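Input.
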Amino acid sequence: MKLKDFIKIVLFTVIGFILLMGGSLLSTVTGVFAFYLNTAFGTFLMAPVIFVMCHKVHKRGTLFIYYLFIGLVYSLMGFWAFMPFMILVAGLAEILVGPVENYHNDKKLSIMYIIVQFFYSLHGLLFLLILKGEGLVKLFPDMFDAQKVKELSDFYYNGKNLVILVIIQLVFSYLAAKFGVYVYKKFFAKGENQKSVLHG
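Output.
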């Protein structure tokens, strides 16, 4: 990987993180549905960034560096506990995409993105299970208090809520992958062999 590739990944990460956070903020206006949609909107908005980046850089480690940088940005914002989680996400992305030639394979990229973003959507539950309520308050005092931890626990420890969350995230991830493929082929492919947006 050359320096210019590394710089491209950094730029894509900045754009992707802004869209991810924008989607998260957008979910807050949905009121009681915010817990269900916390990562769904961001997953949809960020998809074109992932697909364009993979096609344009297509070097081994691109996805790992991208998600690692996302974790670094979270850490710089004070959420350092995200770093080990994002390392897992980054490794999962690289494993799922497979050989480097798959960076040009929209089906492989779509499968990777759906699974990775679904795993990412469960970060709240995983933090709650690992850190417990007391740990969340201690590590993120500006974000959590006893009341917010209770709300989080009541949501994630409810089986019905988890089923709805899983369905919503999988649907959004699937649509996001389709959207990412569409945007890449429509605006960035530039003469590459055009495949069907629905079947590519």
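Confidence is low (pLDDT under 50) at residues 194-200.
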